[in-house]
Amino acid sequence: MITSTAENILKTLIANENAWVSGQTLAKQLNLSRAAIWKAIANLTTDGFNIESQRGPGKGYRYIPNEKMSVTGIIHKLKFPIAVYVFDVLSSTNTFAKQALISEEITEPTAIIANVQTKGAGHFGRAFVSPAQTGLYISFALPLAPDSVVIPSLLATASAVAVARMLKQLLDIQIDFNWINDLYYHDKKVGGILTEAMVNFESQTYSALIVGIGLNLTNQQTELGAITDKLEISRNQIAACLINHFFALYNSYQDGLFLDDYRTSLLNIGKTVTIKSGQQVITGIAEGIDDKGQLLLHTPTGKIRLAGGEMLITQI
């Protein structure tokens, strides 16, 4: 368990990532004894943080990024005042978000992250494989004011663009989208997005939104593709960058100004596809998306617009 003293030390070391910070400097900045510094460093090491220590001029303590995810490792990189929860294990980050919203444990926009999901949820109730250390499993819990305007198809597409912008910024790779919620890299699915809503029964208005994002970063032991063989940056940095891009779009996603980025990377346009939407299975030619992120599908009976669904079959 990270104490406030250890957290303050960790913040300082992370701010000087990969650089040496002397015990004397830490003691002076934080008004702590050298013994308190040593004890807190030992606790951080026990908690899984990779902190080197060496004696001598120009040495001291040095934080080396690793796979340990933590609130402290994320929040110092955020551009928005967002609450962040990090768990070693959850059944599902979306399930936790729903329960916390119902109990009012969460009353403000919050990011929930798990190192492992034992029952990660995908589209239409499918399982999303979520092993330790190899992916990013995050949900955004988003309480709403009663008069909030919600456009689900724009929220889903904006979330996909946020992931793409994060990966482009940090790893210089470009992913593609399979409408509406699948993320692809090198023709293999590497992740997905699950958007859910909570409704106030009396007013029949949305009371909260939940956006779950699962991204397979390095796991090769799955039918999914992987973003990379080995990460050169920490998952804390990846999570923080995604949170920043998500909220940069979420605060104004209804304007749809990001849709050109989505269209540029949208797969299967001009092809015959089969879409499962609710209880319907519809086949037609995918012509693109409209200004609300809805799929334009040309069917034998005419053109229709779909706000949600899943592409099941693609015919080349």
Summarize this, please?
The chain is α+β, with helices and mostly antiparallel strands and 316 residues long. Helices cover 28% and strands 31% of the residues.
Offer a few descriptive terms.
7-stranded mixed β-sheet; SH3 type barrels; Arc Repressor Mutant, subunit A; 316 residues; 8 helices; 3 domains; alpha+beta; 5-stranded antiparallel β-sheet; elongated; 14 strands; BirA Bifunctional Protein, domain 2
Structure, explained:
This is Bifunctional ligase/repressor BirA. This protein is α+β, with helices and mostly antiparallel strands and 316 residues long. It has three domains: 4-63, Arc Repressor Mutant, subunit A (Orthogonal Bundle); 71-264, BirA Bifunctional Protein, domain 2 (2-Layer Sandwich); 272-315, SH3 type barrels, CATH 2.30.30.100. 28% of the residues lie in helices and 31% in strands. It has helices spanning 4-15, 23-30, 34-46, 71-75, 93-102, 152-171, 235-250, 259-264, and strands spanning 51-54, 60-63, 83-90, 110-117, 135-143, 176-178, 182-185, 188-200, 205-216, 272-277, 280-289, 295-299, 302-306, 310-315. It has a seven-stranded mixed beta sheet, sandwiched between helices.
Q: What is the topology?
A:
Elements: H1 4-15, H2 23-30, H3 34-46, E1 51-54, E2 60-63, H4 71-75, E3 83-90, H5 93-102, E4 110-117, E5 135-143, H6 152-171, E6 176-178, E7 182-185, E8 188-200, E9 205-216, H7 235-250, H8 259-264, E10 272-277, E11 280-289, E12 295-299, E13 302-306, E14 310-315
Parallel strand pairs: 3-4
Antiparallel strand pairs: 1-2, 4-5, 5-9, 6-7, 7-8, 8-9, 10-11, 10-14, 11-12, 12-13
Helix pairs in contact: 1-3, 2-3, 6-7
